[in-house]
Amino acid sequence: MERTIDQVCKFRDNMKHTFYILLFLQIPTGMAQNSTVDLQNLLVTKNYAQAEVLLTEQLRLTPNKETKDQLGEVYGYQGKWNESIAIYKELTAAYPQNADYAFKYGGVLARKAQSSNKITALGLVGKIKENFKKAAYLNPKSIGVQWALVDLYITLPGILGGSTSKAFDHAKKLKSISLIDGYLAMGYVHEYDENPAQAKENYIEALELLGNLDGIQRNQLHYQIGKVCAEYGLKLGDGLYHMQQYIKYYTPLDGVPLKWAYFRMAQLYRKRSDIPNARKWITKALQMDGTLKPALMEQEKINAMG
Asked: What is the DSSP letter of 306?
């Protein structure tokens, strides 16, 4: 399937997985107990500006890689991509064998590419690839890293290294690590490869595994499950639950903006014939972006139902 240069720098709804997945913050044990509690409270309440102030002061008083890592993530939660990039550039240089730092560096670079013009985005592609591939080499069993590479290879034009076959390779690796992620990734690649029957088959296999999930650590997985349920009209109750969880725990680092989650909620409710709730959620989506074409089309379908 032909890909355009625009696909390098604009991330569509389907490009949802793990370019932006950063690990949960790990509180360093050397911090004073009250500071640790304060930081945890600030993160739970999403008061990232105050968390930044606290971490900046802690880093000034006691410089260490853990606090610097946390500050890089907090910058990311606020969409301060340049500041976050600077942090992870330093950390990857100082700790070249740390897979997490390479992964996070690639992730925030990709987020900057998403919000930049074409020229800037194209200039970041090489560094994004370099860091994701390095992270995969250092930690080949990382679910997030493998998802990042699936996205990378399915998204880039061939002239910049895009490759459906390589995307399939990483989807297969995901399947060996996590069955549900593997089936979702295979379905995702089949979608881009214009093979809807194979995509649906893999998505159905993924949904059959919902009952075996022992908790979900990646908020992105909630969105992926909810999206599949919405698109294919399958397990609508499960889809609503997982999309609600995505919305509840959303941060800018999750990749898919809330307007898309609201659109999916409307889609799920419409397919349950719950028109009042469908209208409520499509209104929320269009309030965030009145030009979102899938949401406008969904609104027409909802209105046609009465």
From this structure: -
Short-list 184, 190, 185, 236, CA closest to 209? 184
Domain residue ranges in the chain: 225-306
Amino acid present at 170? H
Judge contact between 148 and 17, C-beta under 8 A.
yes
State the distance between the two ends of the chain, measured CA to CA, in whole angstroms.
39
Tokens read off for 180: 């549900």
CB–CB of 124/106 below 8 Å? no
Name the residue among 44, 99, 35 with its Cα closest to residue 77.
44
Q: Between the CA atoms of 151, 152, 153 and 159, what dihedral angle is there, to the nearest 10 degrees?
A: 140
The domain 225-306 is classified under which CATH number: 1.25.40, 1.10.10, 1.20.120, 3.40.50? 1.25.40
- Which residue, among 19, 220, 21, has the nearest Cα to 128 in the 3D structure? 19
pLDDT tens track for 244-259: 999 998 887 787 889 9
- Average pLDDT of the segment spanning 170-189: 94
Q: Which of 111, 91, 109 shows the shortest CA–CA distance to 101?
A: 91
Would you state the pLDDT for residue 215? Answer: 67
Q: Distance between CA 253 and CA 60 in Å, rounded?
A: 25
Q: How many CB atoms lie within 10 A of CB 168?
A: 18
